[in-house]
Amino acid sequence: MTTLSIIYVLVTEAIVSLPPDTSFFQEIGLVEFFSETRWTPQYAEEQRHYGILPLLCGTLLITGISGLIGLPAGLMIAIYLSEYATPRTRSLCKPMLELLAGIPTIVYGYFALKVLTPFFIVPVFKHTFGLSVGGFNALAGGIVVGIMIIPMVASLSEDVLRAVPNSLREAGYALGSTKFDVSAKIVVPSALSGILASFLLALSRSIGETMAVAIASTGQPALTLNPLDAIQTMTIFIVNVMQGEVVAGSTLEKSLYAVALVLFIITLGMNMVSQMVLARYREVYQ
Amino acid sequence: MNLHDDFYERKLVLRHRLGQAFEWLCRLTTWLSMGLLAVLLLGIGRQAWGWLTFGFLTRGNSYIAEEAGIVAGLCGSLWLIGLTAIMAVPLGVGAAVYLEEYARPTRLTKLIQLNISNLAGVPSIVYGILGFTVFVRMFGLRDRPEKFVCSLGFVEFSFELPLGRVVVSGAATLTLLSLPVIIIAAQEALRAVPASLRHASLALGATKWQTVRHQVLPAALPGILTGVILALSRALGETAPLLVLGAAAQLSVVPGRIAGITDALTHPGKLVQAPFDQFTAIPLQIYSWVSDSSRGFEYVSAAGIVVLLVVLVLMNGTAIFIRQRFQKKIRW
């Protein structure tokens, strides 16, 4: 069907291109692509370097921050909704979560740049700790991406938590466990694989997230793990390049496809694993 | 013995405290994120207050903040979503009907199924790159765009191949993006139709097609419609793929240069030409305003966001309305 051809197109564009052109990996080589620490394809001819590590590093930074915020918060909400909340609270919270999930990413980007950075990050880190923070920083982007994945983690994890049979909970109570013991030591461990799968899905979403990060954190590609720096992720690179005019057939254009391919492979791999885990999990409890 | 009891008692109290603390922590997180939603909406609303005027809705874009308007983006977005719906809905529902009603569970269909759910998780920017290659550049098969003129009897319109950065390219890209979501939603709606309905129809001598057309599809329609609207509203908010396509963020004219409803009626040619015209969209305009650091544009972008959110709420409201309305009628 139509969807099947999509993968085919992308892969062929990046790796095996048509005979008259050379593909990106024929021009640059895999070794340089993965070991070179500078990524400067937009510079003058002799200063160009094609090492994807800085972009991967920026992506990792954003994903790390968003994971630190989004995953625990999402899991807590899931536990609260499935174990503690009354049906009324749940019926109130679920649409709110859907609303949170339905907000376009560009709105989060605006929020990060115009609200989070000037009113929260700069006062805290610059005025209190005396660190240097710019208007663009990875922290703001990471935080909003974290907020963005909360609804996803919460609703997916809640589904798997609710799939845990009640008999397990009742057995726990019969042995004299408190509610906390039951939630944290029985329900969560028995739903662990499903929870991890939802974490993976959420992280792959935050890897592929573009606009919020592009608005809030854009900077030069750099190998840094300082969340107060401006950075460049794979997605930011693609957006930045495509805003200008790209010469067809140039190495810059091919590097776009290479970056998109890496992005695609990473997210596809993570999605595949979590889909498989979720599918297996469903079979176990039915 | 006494000592042991004491120890146990103290442990029990601690355990209960821990449990309570945990419950409050969870509750706090939940309400905090809800509060965040409120802060976000209120903050943006406050920024946009006073800038969201009738003039803002009817003006084209401008380099001066006070004179910037969103009509180009609004119309561009409506064109995009309309064309996306025309392309994506038949394809998506057709694929779902095939997969649910006709396809046998072979290894191939399993693979397709897995593929679709994976495609739903592919970053939208990758779709943007794909759309750029396929629709804007057409694989670079032709170096120079070639102009075609097509006549429909009473009107004629022209388009170029490769398509370039026009509404159709954008809509086609958004179609690819929302297809997996639509297929999954439609499949779930079809699966929710009880098998007894199909069996009854088949037992009465209806053909497979008649069963699907007259029994299954009407029963699944509310679910399908809800899924479609949700997918389209997601597509409406997408910025990255359109940005990658190279759609003009600074454009200030409506696709087809239609000046109003009367203009569209007196010059039907403009309506046909519009899909092959350059375009911009609400999220793109917001992006260009957010990146513009000159004074006043932060308010303009907030106003743009409010417009976008209002359109989204309208679409989602329709989806909820449909769900409520039709769910009550059908009882199995």
Describe this structure in words.
The complex is a heterodimer of chains A (286) and B (332). The radius of gyration of chain A is 22 Å and the shape is globular. In chain A, helix 4 crosses helix 10, helix 7 packs antiparallel against helix 10 and helix 10 packs antiparallel against helix 13. Chain A is built from 13 helices and no strands. Chain A is mainly alpha-helical. Chain B has 13 helices and two strands; from the N terminus they run αααααββαααααααα. In chain B, helix 3 packs across helix 12, helix 8 packs antiparallel against helix 13 and helix 12 runs antiparallel to helix 13. The model of chain B has no long low-confidence stretch (mean pLDDT 78). Chains A and B meet through helix 1, helix 4, helix 5, helix 6 and helix 9 of A and helix 1, helix 4, helix 5, helix 6 and helix 8 of B.
Features:
heterodimer, A: 286 residues, mainly alpha, MetI-like fold, 13 helices, B: 332 residues, 2 domains, two-stranded antiparallel sheet, 2 strands, 70% helix, 4% strand
Short description:
Chain A has helices spanning 2-14, 24-27, 30-35, 53-84, 87-102, 105-128, 138-163, 166-174, 179-190, 192-208, 211-217, 234-243, 251-284. Chain A is mostly helical and 286 residues long.
Order of helices and strands of chain B: HHHHHEEHHHHHHHH
CATH class of the largest domain in chain B: Mainly Alpha
User: What is the CATH C level class of one domain in chain A, in words?
Assistant: Mainly Alpha
At CATH's second level, what is the architecture of the largest domain in chain B? Answer: Orthogonal Bundle
The main sheet of chain B orders its strands as 1-2
Cα distance spanning the termini of chain B: 62 Å
